[in-house]
Amino acid sequence: MRTALITIVRGRHEHLRRQLRWVSRLAPQPEFHVVVSMGDPKISGLVAENGNGRGVVVAMEPTEELHLAAARNTGVAKAAELGADAVVLLDVDCLPDRDLIGDYARALTETGTRTAVISGRVKYLPEGMTEADYTASGVAELGRDHSARRIPPGDSLEPADPRMLWSLNIASTVESWNRIGGFDEAYVGYGGEDTDFGQRLAAAGGTMWWSGRACAYHQYHPTVTPPVQHAASIARNANIFREKWGFDPMEGWLKDMLDTGHLTHEAGHWRAADQSR
């Protein structure tokens, strides 16, 4: 199985440097590491300086808002063009376990010709780590599983609710990706595109699977919960999603942002509060 690793990025340069170093230790290696630069001119140099020669940079034009869905589609299209028949999507803030590629290859082989997306394990690293802590044993000890994610035992796979799909660490065959149709590029900015991808998977007759293997370690960075700085794009993308699928994505965020006055909800339509006047 010719597997490509795909990372989309703008900013997060230290996270990318560290990820590139960890990718160089993968065994087996991916055939290619496709890095999609979302308008960041420094990415090519970072990949050249820190990668292991398998990096392929695809540059997108700079935009005010991040085109996350389009960037993922661009990465998979490039991987397929290069001859990959399976893809692993790994967010820039994630470090791959040494066995990530092999674990995914075995899981995808198990699903056979069925339309499938595998969601690997993600362990979250704490604030305050030093560079000396970033070892295989260090991250394994310090990382903590997310309470909402299922961890099947051993090499087993378990079917999952596609509404739980989160693309920070997932894999599929290119054939499955094409059946699903990739990400909907109508989603621009933050929020909703992953949940939509899960619905597209289900609509194509496919299954999302939890895996306790294919582990990635999520590097700490400050977050705002709910992400009120993205209120406008979250409202816009929630409206796109509801029109397509008949229910709201991101229910927790939407409720919290409605309660705090960052969003309004009238006649079934979400708006950022500063756009409602």
TrEMBL record:
Tell me the pathway: Cell wall biogenesis; cell wall polysaccharide biosynthesis
Keywords from the named record? Glycosyltransferase, Transferase
Q: Which domain of life is it from?
A: Bacteria
Bilayer-spanning residue ranges: none
- Tell me which residues make up the Galactosyltransferase C-terminal domain: 167-208
Family matches, as Pfam families: Glyco_transf_7C
Among SUPFAM superfamilies, the record links this protein to: Nucleotide-diphospho-sugar transferases (SSF53448)
Single Gene Ontology MF annotation: glycosyltransferase activity
Q: PANTHER family attached here? A: GALACTOFURANOSYLTRANSFERASE GLFT2, RHAMNOSYLTRANSFERASE WBBL
**What family is this?**
Belongs to the glycosyltransferase 2 family.
Recorded protein name is Galactosyltransferase-related protein
Naturally occurring in which organism (per UniProt): Kocuria carniphila
Q: Organism classification, top ranks?
A: Bacteria, Bacillati, Actinomycetota, Actinomycetes, Micrococcales
